[in-house]
Amino acid sequence: MRILLVGAGGVGDAFAKIAARRSFYELIVVSDYDLSRAERTVAWIEARHGAQDGRFLAERIDASDPDSVAEVAQRHGVTHVMNAVEPKFVPTIFAGALAADANYLDMAMSLSEPHPTNPHEETGIMLGDDQFALSADWEKAGKLALVGMGVEPGLSDVFARYAADHLFSEIDELGTRDGANLVVRDELGNEIFAPSFSIWTTIEECLNPPVVWEKDKGWFTTAPFSEPEVFVFPEGIGPVECVNVEHEEVILMPRWINAKRVTFKYGLGDEFIGILKTLNQLGLDKTEPVRVRSADGPVMVAPRDVVAAGLPDPASLGPRMTGKTCAGVWVTGTGTDGMPREVYLYHVSDNEWTMAEYEAQCVVWQTALNPVIALELLAAGTWSGLGVLGPEAFDAKPYLDLMALPVDQGGYGQPWGFEDRLA
Amino acid sequence: MRILLVGAGGVGDAFAKIAARRSFYELIVVSDYDLSRAERTVAWIEARHGAQDGRFLAERIDASDPDSVAEVAQRHGVTHVMNAVEPKFVPTIFAGALAADANYLDMAMSLSEPHPTNPHEETGIMLGDDQFALSADWEKAGKLALVGMGVEPGLSDVFARYAADHLFSEIDELGTRDGANLVVRDELGNEIFAPSFSIWTTIEECLNPPVVWEKDKGWFTTAPFSEPEVFVFPEGIGPVECVNVEHEEVILMPRWINAKRVTFKYGLGDEFIGILKTLNQLGLDKTEPVRVRSADGPVMVAPRDVVAAGLPDPASLGPRMTGKTCAGVWVTGTGTDGMPREVYLYHVSDNEWTMAEYEAQCVVWQTALNPVIALELLAAGTWSGLGVLGPEAFDAKPYLDLMALPVDQGGYGQPWGFEDRLA
């Protein structure tokens, strides 16, 4: 297996660092629009783990240009293109990988567009629509595009498949629930507002109409922040206010798993929900440029870019952050014994540990872990498939086993949690 | 009396329209940086009230240049310069008026600067400090600078003086309280967020440390939004959440009126307070430019300018606004009969009426009304003084009488209200 990693930002950097401890591939080409970022990642790996005998290379790439992606992939005989940049680049990397006759993985799917006249009830273009539309091309080429293979989507979809295969005879709801107790402090130790993930992407996710799937209705949308619910997260995180958010799981799970309802709720917490509502109310979430006075005369800037410019870079927050983040799926329905059942399957990532082990903050590290595991299963032939597929199209058990197996036994040493909530 | 009005924005335009119905002056020169704005105001007056035989002239002026202000004033033999622009231009208009040997009025005083190391407890440079420092120059020139002569400060200070002279033997607190029930709707009739006063100035007022005066301590500051209090406003406005805000009354009243405590609380309401806190938390209130990406490469813009650019112009809101705004002073202490007393003296402005009568929204109209009355009293010699003085330095009774007197009896037909809250 020869991998082209597109993007050496927070998640890409963590992907390479995690993969550096594994041996299932021959080559990882770490590429970025900014070559120095790719070189920094490769240098960190060589400093930490010794010379890699050419297993890691740094390259410059333009993710917005399919030809650039295909050229780098072909030059290195790449078998798998790993997309680790913002989802707006999905179409070009997706096309470049196919052109290079390589397989493809991403952690977020092609972007949605709201319904033009009825956005809070009906879907428009959905997440991933543009990718699934090309599934036949991938099948014909004999290649796999494994989409949504981060932590959420990704590990959450694996959990859902596991619940369907091993824990339930009938599923009422597959509810992905994401929450954290992360706190960021300034130099003086005061708590500050600093989102642990790209504010640009967070605004996109949270202010787009959330999508819900029901067996009788299919996919439909609601107003942003709908159906608030306090969900109690494990391992000391505790209760967090969660709301519906547009997310890939709701698109992916119903395609392969039988359930009555599929939702995604994000534990944003009261404060962050209030901030996002205010940004929306004041039009500061907008991506269309507005005319603003400046010392050099009027300029055109997108309000959302101004919001992002004023906040610290999430990748820089690791050393100033404490706490844990939890990703998981809450499943309700009838157990294999015919009795009502309610479980929460989850994985927790602790910032203190990810910083000490990988110099990566926990949210990006947890995201990056999962595509490494998936690639290892694909390299071994444990997972295989053609066309555009989600993580739940594959057998969940070998994935969760490899993830949980201790490092000294050849696994990733990342146990996952299980709560039987009716027990 | 020959008046130079500097600024034909919302308040300046309303000032000219209100003055057009009075006859106490010979000339009003309506001036603006944008000559067409001044011409529009003059044209409206002539269309509504007929030819004014040269009583109104339009001129271009640069409020940031004392020489420009002095030149226009001298050319027209101006006796009184009326400042109706943003407070950042106070120093230059103030200097230009004195250079032209004219008297001066404004509705907001020179800006403050927070204490460099202890901003939430101690004052730094206070509102109006830069003006009071020059009082001797004005006295020597035999001229008056009447500062803070809008509605708040302005009418509020007149109310305070009236209470001290006619209603109380001892005052515990002079508490200016400002509240409204204004609602702005979009074309579809949905309520929208649209501040009825410049968001730039509102942020400045609300995020600067509020100042409080106490007889034993003098002036001191608190953190923004301190001492929240629900104040019940009259004439159907009802209860509104008010918080301490930096305002001129707290600086002016203790200079001329004997009280134990002087405060200003603004009825921002929960929602607006939340929005201002969020803007502050995200650094979007900042006036220092930040580097932001744009289609033309990185640009430098002040986040506060971006916030303002995204909101509708307050002067344009009149037709889409409903409701009333109330300005007044809540006075507690001992009445002239020796008994405990608590009164609220106030003036209410109804947007429906100000739009119908003046095509001006009620907040700017109410602000502009008061300097017209003050100038009429100065023209008549009822009010007179030298140096830098606040409205409470003058007798309040003739002011309130002229304001309340019906139009057909020569007054302004604007009754003021009085609530005896212990009765």
UniProtKB/TrEMBL annotation, chains A, B:
<dbReference type="InterPro" id="IPR032095">
    <property type="entry name" value="Sacchrp_dh-like_C"/>
</dbReference>
<dbReference type="Pfam" id="PF03435">
    <property type="entry name" value="Sacchrp_dh_NADP"/>
</dbReference>
<keyword id="KW-0067">ATP-binding</keyword>
<keyword id="KW-0547">Nucleotide-binding</keyword>
<dbReference type="InterPro" id="IPR005097">
    <property type="entry name" value="Sacchrp_dh_NADP-bd"/>
</dbReference>
<dbReference type="GO" id="GO:0005524">
    <property type="term" value="F:ATP binding"/>
</dbReference>
<feature type="domain" description="Saccharopine dehydrogenase NADP binding">
    <location>
        <begin position="3"/>
        <end position="146"/>
    </location>
</feature>
<feature type="domain" description="Saccharopine dehydrogenase-like C-terminal">
    <location>
        <begin position="150"/>
        <end position="403"/>
    </location>
</feature>
<dbReference type="Pfam" id="PF16653">
    <property type="entry name" value="Sacchrp_dh_C"/>
</dbReference>
<dbReference type="InterPro" id="IPR036291">
    <property type="entry name" value="NAD(P)-bd_dom_sf"/>
</dbReference>
<protein>
    <submittedName>
        <fullName>ATP-binding protein</fullName>
    </submittedName>
</protein>
